[in-house]
Automatic annotation (TrEMBL):
It catalyses: Hydrolysis of (1->4)-beta-D-glucosidic linkages in cellulose and cellotetraose, releasing cellobiose from the non-reducing ends of the chains. One of its GO terms (molecular function) is cellulose 1,4-beta-cellobiosidase activity. This is Glucanase. One of its GO terms (biological process) is cellulose catabolic process. It is an enzyme of class 3 (hydrolase). Keywords: Carbohydrate metabolism, Cellulose degradation, Glycosidase, Hydrolase, Polysaccharide degradation, Signal. InterPro entries: ConA-like_dom_sf, Glyco_hydro_7, Glyco_hydro_7_sf.
Amino acid sequence: MNIWEANYNTVAFTPHVCTVEDGASDKDGCDSNSYCTGDATFLGQSFTVDTNSVITIVTQFIVSDNTSTDTLFEVCSFYVEGDIIISNSAVSKTASGDTNSLEDRSGLAQLGRAFGDSMVLVLSLWNDHEANMLWLDGDYPAIVSPTSPGVARG
């Protein structure tokens, strides 16, 4: 679960789930990136969420009956900038034409079951030498026209 992959130009939320039956993990994840799905002015310098300012990101994992044993059905984030609360950009995976691999692997329910087995929160800074982080804030995949839906990412 990548809760927040970001720089000052863009942000992505990327759950990676695995199936129990065949052990196949979702290497690429099912990312949610507001720039990639059409909201190019949501997060960045002097945008709705202004990365020139101090911001706090709140991510909530929501179950239907507010117990620790129920099925996870939603993950939502919002931003706090000063005393202003900013709702996350409304994005849709269908806008980019990408495969919704999260749902192919039982979606949030599978992720919720994994949370039940205990997890550790880890903060890391990293680089991607294979794709040069283009999947976060560049045109990706690089072999597709930048004007194609979902290619421009930030």
